[in-house]
Specification:
heterodimer, A: Immunoglobulin-like, 1 helix, 10 strands, B: Immunoglobulin-like, five-stranded antiparallel β-sheet, 9 strands
Chain lengths: ~190, ~200
Amino acid sequence: MNLRKTIRVFVLPALAALGALSAAAQNPSASGSLSVQLQNGSGLQMVLYSDPSGVTLGNSGTASASLAFGNVSAYGALSTNVTRTNGTNSFTVSTPFDINVQVSGLSSSSYTLSGELSTALPTGVTLEVDSVSLSNTASTPIQAKETYGSNLAHTLSAVISTSASGSGGPPTGSTITTTINFVATAN
Amino acid sequence: MNNWKKISQSLLASGVAGLLLAAVSQAHATTAVTASGALTVEATVASSIQLTFNTATSNGVTLTSGAGTNAATLNFGTVTEYGSVPTNVAIATSSSLCSSCFVASTNVSIVVNAADSSSSGFSLAASVSAPTHGEVLAVGTSGALSTSATSPTPITGSFTYGSSGNALQVSLGIPTATADSTQMSDVITFVATAN
């Protein structure tokens, strides 16, 4: 009997018997497979923050914040972190604030920032972000290629006529309120 | 024949599917991904006025410093009752401003600007820090200025807003007994109040 025949006749049956014995000694089992699926939704998130050099925002760290310039005038005292430049027929008060836009599930590397006012401003007052004048009739592009993931400083400015109220100037002594609705659009 | 029918049906089906996929893909490509945020802005506009000094265009000593600001310096230079007179300084050897004194005078321009105000004019008042050498100061025809900052002396006149300014005479009454080389330094504080 050659070696191949010996293996076929004696060794293989022995191994088979051992395998069967081993299987009989284990606990019974059952198996199943769970297919896990998800669709990774892509999106952006915008958060507004106080800038270290700017007016402290109300609700900083959210998508709905507030910024109070306080009393503004051409020659009087201003609130902390509000700066002023005087022009011929107007003055401008400014303060920085931060916008942070996070991206998820997109290959986009930048976004476009635009803004629109919720309401019309009184005569003699315009609002600017980064020197771009905003309106309440259309969304206006402010920055074309902003980067994600970090606090980016923007300058909010109010340009105010020095003319008297009723002669092209704004009303005095009453609080002017409007909301800038910002939109970040993935490029 | 059946094979051709199956093939054409298959092609038609895959064509429709392809069109649907293209449409879905196109729709996905044109849907902008956005995020939004709202910043509510508040401000209260207040009326204000500003007072600055300039060298008077007529009979005025050139301001040594601070022209165009609200803290300027006017230097009469060396004045004597009978000696040479600095440019744009007038000397009077007698005056109702003071007795036993002589008076040096020059003009200064006071510029007051108003913003967001319907005011058409303003009143002016001035006071002086306590003189230390017996000198007396006056603005215009005010007479000796008050040394009380809380009760400044009204300055008589009709003043107007604007960069052209209002020329006012500043007078310094110097006792004739003042020692030679005495240096006088006084601060006149002006207050403009919108009418």
